[in-house]
Design goal:
The protein is of the alpha/beta class and about 400 residues long. It contains eleven helices and 22 strands. The protein has an eight-stranded parallel beta sheet. A hairpin with a 4-residue loop joins strand 9 and strand 10. The structure holds alpha-D-galactopyranose. The site of alpha-D-galactopyranose (GLA) has 9 residues, from loops.
């Protein structure tokens, strides 16, 4: 016979055990927004850079537009001390991570860091394998708010187990941390990571080009259109608290202004995390206008959290729809051609159905007013056909609001 008290003891023990097996909820109810060092700076990270990026995020208006996380990617590491605790490279981060986190927090922003589930990071620094609980504790002591967790050097380990271990370690350490998985989509994390992470990479790395495939000798990175095409079939898996991540933005890193606008608009349509990857201290007027377009960001941040879908494709002029709260829709005409594309969109002849999330338009019975989100002008109603020309590699992005 087990006594009442020991039953209670067992119950308390088990509930403690189960409570650990969860991620921090309520952390990413809309797609996370922030900045990450990798796309522009690669391994050239240091304390002065991160501080000045935090300053620029505030001064450029990006913080006001909703960007929140400053994430230090690979190469911040120094080594492990005699007890196994990780420390940053002291020549790059002379005042240590705690002081840097304090600085970022004083600006009203949050700090993210990078590690890897394997023995080493992709750039060869110490990984977290075997040190998960210790690393999570150290991050909590520093005041870290976001962890990007990569998948290099993971021979013989299972992704579900490895990512669950780090999720549990972060939870046990007690400080809310947004958990960003970077497993490149290899083992289809959208099928299993809902309870583990707040976002998961769906592809290999993005490359700053419109539609190329970049050969690194054995592995590839992908242009913006290639990454977009790889999102096909994944929208059912995303939603509040668990997002498909098509990788960080290349806006401001060398694409044309039209391409930057199209890239940003499509990431908004995909309900993708908006993690800028450019030098925020040195942005053109156009780059700032794109990254801080509040109306496009509002489409990305809509509370329904539904990823948009391609409605049709007319010779590389694609029409995308995204259901929004309050019966609104976002619509994006994406011109992938090298020539301008003429649109003649007769709303009344279209019937847009989102079978997965159960939304449908009935333009005949239910007209909408139309707002152009890049010109920021109200441009009529869906009672009349929409006629416009989209420049090459560009978009026209609209918001439809039901007429009363
Ligand atoms: C991988 C990731 C990138 C970046 C680098 C850092 O390639 O996919 O996003 O974090 O590692 O080494």
């Amino acid at each position: 016979m087990i006594s009442k008290t020991s039953k209670l003891g067992i119950l308390i023990f088990l509930s403690g055990f189960f409570i650990q097996a969860q991620k921090f909820e309520e952390l990413a109810l809309t797609p996370p927004m922030g900045w990450n060092s990798w796309n522009k700076f690669g391994c050239q990270v240091n304390e002065a850079l991160i501080r000045s990026i935090a300053d620029a995020m505030v001064e450029s208006g990006m913080k006001d537009a909703g960007y929140e996380y400053i994430v230090i990617d690979d190469c911040w590491h120094g080594g492990r001390d005699s007890q196994g605790f990780i420390y940053p490279d002291s020549s790059k981060f002379p005042n240590g991570m705690k002081a840097l986190a304090d600085y970022v927090h004083r600006k009203g922003l949050k700090l993210g860091i990078y590690s890897d589930a394997g023995t080493k990071t992709c750039a060869g620094y110490p990984g977290s394998r075997g040190f998960e609980y210790q690393d999570a504790l150290q991050y909590a002591q520093w005041g870290i708010d976001y962890l990007k967790y990569d998948w290099c050097n993971t021979e013989n380990i299972n992704p579900i187990g490895a990512y669950s271990t780090m999720r549990d370690a972060l939870y046990k350490a007690g400080r809310p941390v947004l958990f960003s998985m970077c497993e490149w989509g290899t083992s289809k994390p959208w099928k299993w990571a809902n309870d583990i992470a707040h976002m998961w990479r769906t592809t290999g790395d993005i490359f700053v080009c419109w539609d190329c495939k970049h050969d690194h000798g054995g592995w590839y990175s992908w242009g913006v259109m290639k990454i977009l095409d790889m999102q096909d079939g994944l929208r059912q898996y995303a939603g509040p608290g668990h997002w498909n991540d098509p990788d960080m933005l290349e806006v401001g890193n060398g694409l044309s202004v039209n391409e930057d606008r199209a890239h940003f608009s499509m990431w908004a349509m995909l309900a993708a995390p908006l993690i800028a990857g450019n030098d925020l201290r040195n942005m053109s007027k156009e780059t700032i206008e794109i990254l801080t377009n509040q109306e496009v960001i509002a489409v990305n941040q809509d509370s329904l959290g539904i990823q948009g879908f391609k409605y049709n494709n007319l010779d590389s002029l694609e029409v995308w729809f995204k259901p929004l709260s309050h019966d609104e829709w976002a619509v994006c005409f994406l011109n992938r051609r090298d020539q301008p594309a003429v649109i003649e969109f007769e709303w009344k002849k279209e019937n847009v159905v989102d079978e997965i999330f159960g939304f449908e338009t009935a333009f005949n019975e239910k007209p909408y007013s139309i707002r152009n989100l890049w010109t920021k002008k109200n441009i009529g109603k869906t009672k009349k056909a929409f006629n416009a020309t989209v420049p090459p590699h560009d978009v026209i992005m609209l918001r439809l609001t039901p007429l009363k």
